[in-house]
What does this fold into?
Amino acid sequence: MNRICELFNIEYPVIQGGMVWCSGWRLATEVSNCGGLGLIGAGSMYPETLESHIRKAKEATEKPFGVNVPLLYPDTERIMEIIERLQVPVVFTSAGSPKKWTGWLKDRGIKVVHVVSSAVFAEKSEAAGVDAIVAEGFEAGGHNGREETTTLALIPAVRKATSLPLLAAGGVASGQAMLAAMILGAEGVQIGSRFAISEESSAHPEFKKLITQSGEGQTQLVLKKLAPVRLVKNAFYDLVVEAENRGVDKDELLTILGRGRAKKGIFEGDLHNGELEIGQVSASIDEVLPVKTIMRNLIAEYRIAQKAASEDSRFNF
Amino acid sequence: MNRICELFNIEYPVIQGGMVWCSGWRLATEVSNCGGLGLIGAGSMYPETLESHIRKAKEATEKPFGVNVPLLYPDTERIMEIIERLQVPVVFTSAGSPKKWTGWLKDRGIKVVHVVSSAVFAEKSEAAGVDAIVAEGFEAGGHNGREETTTLALIPAVRKATSLPLLAAGGVASGQAMLAAMILGAEGVQIGSRFAISEESSAHPEFKKLITQSGEGQTQLVLKKLAPVRLVKNAFYDLVVEAENRGVDKDELLTILGRGRAKKGIFEGDLHNGELEIGQVSASIDEVLPVKTIMRNLIAEYRIAQKAASEDSRFNF
It folds into this structure.
């Protein structure tokens, strides 16, 4: 029995990360229809936009789906009201304290998962009463923990700190990586980058194309004086790094960052001036694929790797 | 058939990293006697010191062992002359171009392995004629690649770039992590931190004690304007970070770094002013253990994880 499959009533323990500007109803429902759990990313949506996405999702699938809610936005109360009213069954919270909303959501029969980047916050999440935990490593795209702990080091540490169902995130875009993460103690995975570069992702085609063409070393964690974020190296990135090397302060970094950079890059396709959030593992992604193919490949690779790990002579010494 | 076991004529595909101030003849030969491949770390030795360690190693084991040679030191020619004269069977080279010494060593019947942190350098190493490759991820201790690619993202990329026998390094201190790395495409592992904190390591007892007590987030990659290095957060680290936040240049960082900092910290036990090189996974190390126990645990954990991945219901959905 896999506790992630059981918790969410899904076929495969594969969660699609609720990514800003990528994860609308189309992506989320296709993942759910293919046997995983799709998440709508509320982080880039006005409350009324989110409401419309949830309504469309309910028409597009009878399978469970969820909403990812970064807790740092001022609209969180309105977003939670919509989630309650439309009876969304699952909420993933991130970028904030798990104490804030877990009880409120659980009282309403909603399953709650909190995203952490350390064992310490995994313990806090368990104490707050969450149903499961996502532990996200340094290699993940977008916002990221200050400890810079990689998935390989993080998952065993979180596994030791809590007995809750555990999802690994960061660096997972293949069935081999999924199995590896599960051997480290996870019971499933949350996948971002691979689904960001799917046909059903709402990211701009130029952004998707750039990622399929970019190789190793093309992302880096920057803006550590504000909140660390993993970005593709482009003209905006160069501007940030040049400023950071000069030792500028938070205020100057905020001015350079400005507003709406992620939208500009990921959604509008401004590859030079946009904030292009994607994970390290994007180096391995060289095709835009439909979710159906991504899911099929993932599970097939997983099963092949599982059989090899048991039977292949390479593993037996 | 495991190609790493075959290449080195060893029982388990476990290499002990040749770490400065930790990896003398005592550590290396105990690892070899326990069925792995021990490496003497030439990086912290004068040529005559290395010669003495190799001679002692030959008395302490009949099993194969090797020497790790960072190629950035001026004494490399004398070191290679000693290795040839004393007929060391295996050399791991790092921190330099694989073109420099691979041909020379191979001509003398010595097996050559090069340490890389990117797929691009793995390809260059294969072209230079090495016998195997170590791919070392961002979570590793000590000096580290500029791409900051984690082991989870790096191993599949290197596996795709070359068909050579491949060792994973960075973040591996358990049998679970070893199996995970092998599922990602490695045929064995190079382990640093866990052996640095063994009874047989020549590191100072105070350094070992500090590591057993430190937890997550206690190492960080710094000195990126010089050569990135992962260090324990101590007074010296604070000095570096404060300077980096001010945007100081290379020259000022070199002055802060001074000379002999790693020796001061790791070998002499000056925990405040020393450069304390260790990997992220050191957070999981809470005991100084003899090599024999470390190796036994590692292989036992590996076999349990291998069986679980095949049979445990968590993995079967």
